[in-house]
Amino acid sequence: MFPPVYIADIAAHEGQEVTLHGWLHNRRSSGKLHFLQVRDGTGVIQCVVFKGNVTPEVFQEADHLPQETSLAVTGLVKKDARSPIGFELDVKDLRALAKPAREFPLGHKEHGVAFLMEQRHNWLRSQRQAVILRVRHSVVKAIRDFFDGRGFTLVDAPVFTPSACEGTSTLFEVPYFDLGKAYLTQSGQLYMEAAAMALGKVYCFGPTFRAEKSKTRRHLTEFWMVEPEVAFMDLDGDMELMEQLVAHVVQAVLAKHERELRDVLERDVSKLANVKAPFPRITYTEAVEVIQKAGHPMKWGDDIGGDEETVVASAYDRPVMVHRYPAAMKAFYFKKDPQDANVALGCDVLAPEGYGEIIGGGQREDDLAVLEASIAQAGLPKEAFEWYLDVRRYGSVPHAGFGMGVERCVAWICGLHHVRETIPFPRMMERITP
Questions:
Q1: Angle, to 10 degrees, between the axis of helix 189-199 and the axis of helix 386-393?
Q2: Structural contact between residues 281 and 240, judged by C-beta atoms closer than 8 angstroms
Q3: 66 upstream amide cis, omega within 30 of 0
Q4: CA-to-CA distance for 315 and 421, rounded, in angstroms?
Q5: What is the DSSP string of 273-336?
Q6: Do the beta carbons of residue 57 and residue 93 sit within 8 Å?
Q7: Where in the cell is it found (predicted)?
Q8: Phi-psi category of 395—alpha, beta or left, where left has phi over 0 and alpha has psi -120 to 50?
Q9: Per mean pLDDT, which range of 211-215, 384-388, 390-394 is the poorest?
Q10: Which of 22, 398, 94, 407 has its CA nearest to residue 225?
Q11: How far apart are CA 263 and CA 267, in angstroms?
Q12: How many Å from the N-terminal Cα to the C-terminal Cα in the chain?
């Protein structure tokens, strides 16, 4: 048997006889021909079994293989303009490695969302889900390449945290030996601030947890977030970094997955092609005016919800940056605008097409006395933040950062209705299986 090759590399073997290892995705027959759709995780290829090219036993077996049979298929790589990948395999030999013990539960028909979620471990085998996970991988790689190529240092933040920095209502509480309670992290930001004072430009990238009792299409209880933090950076520099990251990620994914996005996910890729810096920038006050003109009963000081985000973003063909939100809406660590103490030096990036906030961040308060007063005003225990206050006690400098959620970013790029499809095994309010 020839050394196995991957379908993604098939073009390099035109005219050669190769062996593929994979699973039977679908099959159909036409007299002396069997057409087997075989996938190997890198792609799908049509394998044509002609009665005159194989033994009678192989031809007979090819007509009765159940879906998801694992296979070793040997054949000649031939160019085919009708194929989505430009090639097909003229089969010379075929061997079933393992046949399903029972009928695969996901046939080639429509299934309800609840059933598909119960079958998530099997649903991942579908072509659509495989494309989404490959796009997710490319998003993660593009994020890492962006920061690594700009001199950032990856610093891993802890998942267990000793205190609730913004209240316990949206934190998962866990017992922690003899030390009492601990919490699953909502963010690595505070730790990145400390790391930035040591390394200048840092980022963490890992799972975060939110115990919000929300069932919207934009929420998960466990998701992945990248959080850069930069010393000697103000809000303007932070916003520039935000737009550069988003533009880099989108264009990197588009360069690699344009065909899959268009043909498998039916994504309008022309809308992604427009995602290039600079992004439009408006203040929160200007955003409120836009929302009010659209007929929404919003007043200054209200949060901008999902519907309102859609109104604001609908005027643009690329993400829009909304900055300087009311200080009362933001966490204690946001720095207030020196020109207007009513607003904070923060910014959200809203994706177009109704996908909402994909980035939130801003400039941090670097004045020790002001930060101590903010902690007290928020009713937080100062002793829990003594280590965080040390960041300001020893050579404090202006610094800024943000967090970008991977799942919302993937949902937008892929044009998905719900973030549950963007992560291999989603965790939501009503789901913790499989």
A1: 30
A2: no
A3: no
A4: 27
A5: HT--SSPPEEEHHHHHHHHHHTT----TTS---HHHHHHHHTT-SS-EEEE--BGGGS-TTBPE
A6: no
A7: Cytoplasm
A8: left
A9: 211-215
A10: 407
A11: 8
A12: 37
Residue type (1 letter), 346: G
Interval 149-166 mean pLDDT: 89
Domains in the chain (CATH in brackets) are 4-98 (2.40.50.140), 121-422 (3.30.930.10)
Query: 351-376: b or e for each residue (b if 16 or more CB lie within 10 Å)?
Result: bbebbbbbbbbbbbbbeeeebbebbe
Query: How confident is the model at residue 168, as a pLDDT?
Result: 57
Kindly report the pTM of this predicted structure: 0.94
Number of Cβ within a 10 Å radius of residue 102: 6
Dihedrals phi, psi of 165, to nearest 5 degrees: -75, -20
Q: Is the peptide bond before 434 cis (omega within 30 degrees of 0)?
A: yes
Q: Please enumerate in sequence order all residues whose Cβ is within 8 A of that of 390, keeping only pairs 6 or more positions apart, or say none.
A: 194
Residue pLDDT, tens place only, 170-194? 899 999 999 999 999 999 999 999 9
Contacts of 384 (CB under 8 A, 6+ apart): 162, 163, 165
Phi, psi of 173 (to 5 degrees): -95, 135
Tokens, residue 423: 């992560």
Instruction: Compare 242 and 181 and report the one with higher pLDDT.
Output: 242
Q: Alpha-carbon distance 276 to 278, whole Å?
A: 6
CA within 13 Å, CB half, 225: 26
Q: Which two tokens stand for residue 332?
A: 């204690």
321-347 tens-digit pLDDT: 999 999 999 999 999 999 999 999 999
